[in-house]
Backbone:
């Protein structure tokens, strides 16, 4: 636990500073047709990725913040509720009202063909993910004071309660940090922006731009920022992981870096810092990737007295590998594995998803980690369309989507990956998988047998043991969101046009 983050498992976009996408709570089990009474929905604009919890209020109420590219919503989650308290538009981004979101859902659901829906999207929302979604509120954190930090274009913006201690208080903007314009790369295909966000264990804010600039700044924005620029050939389309020793893990389209923050200086050499290339071909695959190279935020594996401390990614090869890097000192007797880019790579293994005819496979999701287990999904569409929104809307519902999930286990004795299981048929085209330690399942979202569903795979076997059947509307498409789990066992899914709390009990 990072003492400067909120005392909650839902503290960052990928839940914790290690970016593991795993939670201790027990999620639902079994096959359930979920009707309207089982879904509480807060409509919002296009693409809704994250939910973060605020500190419990003195009165006992629990509240969460949902952020997307056009609004910041405060939602009451106590006692099974999912009620909007208030929402703020994101300044500088195109705003969509609740009425707009509901209208868009009706218009999309009423299209009669793939061609009609594609025409609708391209007339109204051309390159929407690349130019709008990517520039706000993908990666967020909540600190121990209940301040919510998010990204809007070139700024980090902090929101909090207008009336501290009041769970029904409206949100207000509290402060803003603007990175000087000279640190943004004007030559990128889409506009450069602040992107990844995390919190060091001494309470400093760490951020990275898409153009490859890493920044450390105090949370009150009172001191001059400390800035490190990656090489000119590097771009970043992922967030950053942070460990308790000051390690900051930044994954560009060419290299994985460990920078080290010692409380005063950000080290890129010495002091335990390192960089390593990884395998990647030069193009983009699959239709859902924001950039080339790896699509994963680094995930940390191994803590405390455990023998191996690793950082795990998927690389950018045509058929991706799961790659583990030594996080700290490389064992003295370790011999570099054949075919790896450096001795820093502990091992890498090519995914197969249990398929013998796999020609292309990449993921835009971070590797979900639980213990020494690592789970990856397939996001490479068989016939991708030109833009990300087109692909995420079409995938599975109107056009054949990608299938496949695979789990690997790290063998601490042999220092290598071992295949645990593969499920070649499971659908998870764009959402971030979530592991429930309490239920020993990993949950994904896809279009199956005529409906969108949340599917739970047994963590030990990969067998589908849970199916929460939602409906065929576009509102149930997870669309890049992180699947969340609340302590009581309810799933929260960020849909294409709003955030949903799904309760089997209701």
Residues:
């Amino acid at each position: 636990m990072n003492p400067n983050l909120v005392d909650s498992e839902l503290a960052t976009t990928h839940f914790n500073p290690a970016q593991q996408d795993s939670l201790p709570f027990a999620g639902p089990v079994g096959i359930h047709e979920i009707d309207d009474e089982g879904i509480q929905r807060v409509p919002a604009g296009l693409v809704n990725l994250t939910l973060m919890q605020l500190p419990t209020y003195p009165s006992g109420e629990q509240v969460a913040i949902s952020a997307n590219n056009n609004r910041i919503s405060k939602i009451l989650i106590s006692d099974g509720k999912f009620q909007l308290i208030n929402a703020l538009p994101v300044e500088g981004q195109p705003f969509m009202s609740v009425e707009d979101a509901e209208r868009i859902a009706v218009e999309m659901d009423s299209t009669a063909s793939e061609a009609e829906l594609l025409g609708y999207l391209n007339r109204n929302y051309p390159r929407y993910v690349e130019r709008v979604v990517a520039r706000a509120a993908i990666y967020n954190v909540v600190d121990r004071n209940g301040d919510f930090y998010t990204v809007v274009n070139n700024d980090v913006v902090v929101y909090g309660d207008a009336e501290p201690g009041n769970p029904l208080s409206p949100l207000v903007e509290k402060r803003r940090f603007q990175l000087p314009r000279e640190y943004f790369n004007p030559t990128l295909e889409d506009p450069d922006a602040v992107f990844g966000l995390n919190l060091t264990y001494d309470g400093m804010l760490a951020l990275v731009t898409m153009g490859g600039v890493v920044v450390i700044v105090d949370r009150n924005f009172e001191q001059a920022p400390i800035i490190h620029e990656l090489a000119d050939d590097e771009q970043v389309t992922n967030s950053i992981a942070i460990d308790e020793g000051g390690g900051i893990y930044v994954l560009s389209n060419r290299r994985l870096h460990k920078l080290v923050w010692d409380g005063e200086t950000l080290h890129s050499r010495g002091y335990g810092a390192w960089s390593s290339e990884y395998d990647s071909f030069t193009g983009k695959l699959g239709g859902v990737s924001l950039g080339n190279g790896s699509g994963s935020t680094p995930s940390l594996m191994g803590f405390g007295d455990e023998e191996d401390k690793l950082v795990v990614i998927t690389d950018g090869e045509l058929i991706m590998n799961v790659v583990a890097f030594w996080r700290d000192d490389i064992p003295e007797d370790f011999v570099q594995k054949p075919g790896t880019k450096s001795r820093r790579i502990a091992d890498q293994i090519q995914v197969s998803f249990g398929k013998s005819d796999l020609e292309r496979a990449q993921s835009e999701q971070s590797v979900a980690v639980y213990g020494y287990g690592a789970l990856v999904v397939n996001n490479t569409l068989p016939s991708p369309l030109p833009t990300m929104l087109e692909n995420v809307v079409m995938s599975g519902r109107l056009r054949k989507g990608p299938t496949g999930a695979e789990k690997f286990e790290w063998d601490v004795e042999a220092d290598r990956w071992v295949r645990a299981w593969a499920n070649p048929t499971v659908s998870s085209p764009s959402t971030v998988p979530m592991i429930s330690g309490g239920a020993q399942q990993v949950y994904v979202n896809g279009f199956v047998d005529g409906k969108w569903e949340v599917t739970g795979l047994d963590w030990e076997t990969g067998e589908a043991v849970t199916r929460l059947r939602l409906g065929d509307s576009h509102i149930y498409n997870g669309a890049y969101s992180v699947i969340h789990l609340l302590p009581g066992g309810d799933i929260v899914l960020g849909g294409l046009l709003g955030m949903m709390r799904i309760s089997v009990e209701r």
About this structure: DSSP finds four helices and 35 strands in the chain.
